[in-house]
Amino acid sequence: MMNEDSSAAGGGGVKKFFQRLSQTYQSTLDRSTPHTRMRWVFAGFLLLLFVLRIFIYQGWYIVCYALGIYHLNLFIAFLTPKIDPEFDPYSQDDEDEGPNLPTRSNEEFRPFIRRLPEFKFWLSVAKSTLIGLICTFFDVFNVPVFWPILVMYFITLFCITMKRQIKHMIKYKYLPFTRNKPRYQRVNDLAGSGPGSVAGNSK
């Protein structure tokens, strides 16, 4: 009985430890959400460490190639709208070229919603880079390959993928960035800039 009680207490302690660890991890992620620049600086630091280990020790090229392909897939998902305009039932056809996003001021404006949000994009990049960095400490992942072939294949794949993505953006007239989206004035600002205010300024 005492052994069973002690094993149950030990199992409960381990469970509480992992619950506390999970809560701390989630709390850290929640606090880092508004700090976009600092998050990407951290991800860039991890990526720099990974690249330095690859160049200094001249190995683990297959890990580097796999990480590059994974980051490319994440980047494409980051640039792609959540709802593909080609299959969007709320879009309207325009000259049989498929549905387009609003391009005129009198049309309804719908903000760009990414398939992969920025935070999940950063988290996936940071996690995968950290895993790749850890893999460089184990010789079992250091598979001998002719790295120039991997570089050429990755560049070719990158060019083909980005060309297809740019064609998709041009065809359906959307930009994956919200920096240049239209912004509307507030009602108070419009009232303050009415004829009365213009007359007052002219006196």
From TrEMBL:
- Output one GO BP term: cell competition in a multicellular organism
InterPro entries, per the entry: MFS_trans_sf (IPR036259), Rer1 (IPR004932)
Q: How does it sit in the membrane?
A: Multi-pass membrane protein
Which SUPFAM superfamilies does the UniProt entry name for this protein? Answer: MFS general substrate transporter
Principal subcellular localisation of the protein = membrane
Entry's localization field: Membrane
Key word Transmembrane helix present: yes
What's one Pfam family here?
Rer1
The alphabetical list of record keywords is: Membrane, Transmembrane, Transmembrane helix
GO cellular component: a single term: endoplasmic reticulum
Q: Which residues cross the membrane?
A: 40-56, 62-80, 145-162
Q: Which family does it belong to?
A: Belongs to the RER1 family.
- List the PANTHER family hit by this protein, alphabetically: PROTEIN RER1
Task: Explain the purpose of this protein.
Answer: Involved in the retrieval of endoplasmic reticulum membrane proteins from the early Golgi compartment.
**What protein name is recorded for this chain?**
Protein RER1
**Species for this entry:** Drosophila erecta (Fruit fly)
Q: Which gene encodes it?
A: Dere\GG11383
